[in-house]
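Fold this complex.
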Amino acid sequence: MNSKERFLNACRGLPVDRPPVWIMRQAGRTLPEYQELRSRYSFWQLCRTPDLAAEATLQPVRRFGMDVAVIFSDILVVPAAMGLEVRFTPRLSITPPVREARDIERLLPIRPDSNLDFVAEAIRLVDEQSTAGPAVLGFSGAPFTLACYMVEGGPSKHFHQIKGMMYGAPGVFADLMERISAAVTSHLRHQIEAGASAVQLFDTWAGELGPADFRRCALPYLRRVIEELRPTGVPVIYYVNGIGNLLEAAAQTGADVLGIDWRLDLVEVRRRLGKGQALQGNLDPAILFAEEPVIRKKIFEMLDQTGGRGHVVNLGHGVIPDTPLAGIRAFVNAVHQWGNDRNG
Amino acid sequence: MNSKERFLNACRGLPVDRPPVWIMRQAGRTLPEYQELRSRYSFWQLCRTPDLAAEATLQPVRRFGMDVAVIFSDILVVPAAMGLEVRFTPRLSITPPVREARDIERLLPIRPDSNLDFVAEAIRLVDEQSTAGPAVLGFSGAPFTLACYMVEGGPSKHFHQIKGMMYGAPGVFADLMERISAAVTSHLRHQIEAGASAVQLFDTWAGELGPADFRRCALPYLRRVIEELRPTGVPVIYYVNGIGNLLEAAAQTGADVLGIDWRLDLVEVRRRLGKGQALQGNLDPAILFAEEPVIRKKIFEMLDQTGGRGHVVNLGHGVIPDTPLAGIRAFVNAVHQWGNDRNG
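Structure:
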């Protein structure tokens, strides 16, 4: 069973020889070979130059042997393609912020075959360079999270601009969310056409919503995006940090796989959800700073909870900057070892 | 029924004429009269000078008529009293960070009647200046949260230092938690002796733990602190941001009241907990940026969920800086109005 079959089977809850493993944010900041690349190119240059993005995508897979190569990109490529200026230095800013109906009018419809084709092209290159290799995972920010960035104009602690729009101008909010959802769908479909084996929706900020607001302001748009991707036949993974309060609602998105953050016990998740979806996650990323025996013990405990079925092994959040390479290696190796112990 | 009776009855699940109301972080940054005070004194000067702290405590109560005067102080007074240097500018730092057994040896035992008496003295002054007035609420950081600050040495995004200690040096972690717990107990007992009607434990960072780690690394210390305060007879409120994943475990702390953040629906909380504890919360602080009718509608919906019984009305998190004063007023007034509508 190769990595792609293993990953796709796990996403669909089908039998696997061992659970597939990858790490959110595996491509990038933790790797010396990435730092070397980064010393020569800006982050945006790496994202927008397909052969460089493909190289960054494959670096962790070559070093550690993950089953999945998540494409090196950023969730903010979508707001950028909609005409906003996205800067990462000195701090993240997305300008001009979208606050009123007329700001929405000025947004561009995205044309993934032109202004986002660099992502698809990177996927094609990764796929070419690794025929017997990893599954290629495309991704996009989820609509609510992209709306947060676009309305707040950058990172936010309290999200009162977007919530002000939700509560005070629901028509404007709905219009914005519809446009973003169309852009997300189009971006993901284009990645799938380029060869992505699966796609992930990252909903970084939806955990800031209570369940009622999530059902009203995020869920309908997620359902629409996922429904429109259904004919492609590829699995969709939905990740929201802080899924604990939203688990039952998140299950209604129609996603094939739910990403679970580290604050939940997977046995409890299975009890609440039944067997409808595969799960992805969910080790505390801080554990990778521990010694190898601690990491192995934690992974074995987690895998014993799920039995390794319908389970894409991952951290419960993106890898922490400065995580020791030995911790990442121990993580991947422990999954392999659990599989070997079990099969042998 | 005066404010103090109303608040204490609500904490104990007893009948009230209307639910009591206050706002986490009501004293301080949002008020112009506080800004005026702050233009003359540093934050630490305000905390450590009892008549100034008493003044800052009473400012919001005078302006808005909350039922509770939460003492103007900071959770970091405890690490400071244990001998660490706490600076707020240019960014928060707690030095030297506590990383090893010998760092713990150097911590001072706190003597609340000397190096923390300014808090108790402020409580005595507030109590004197408001005989027919609000309940006075003392507070402390909870042990795990204080340990996070002391080990990380400041705010943290990923908490890998403290988690490294939890996983890698459990004996050192336990020793630190025991010392902090003793300090917290002593600090809270001293506030109660000075006249606090109730005390709140703020566990700002415990929501970063999964349920298993919470039960192992935070819960036993919380139980001990609360158990040791039991003979005083005053209610204890336990607040953890992100309580959704920890609700059942948090109920085992022995706290009389659980603070609920805005990401949970109170009907769901009651269903999960039964009627064991009173609840405090839980409006989304961002709602105070909305217009008055939206705020009133949200509060009425929330109070209709609990029926106003065993419910201390509050936000689900501290008030956001720059919240409009009109929003705070609308919040407090709506609770009064709900009570009036209901009674008559």
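Chain B is about 50% helix and 10% strand.
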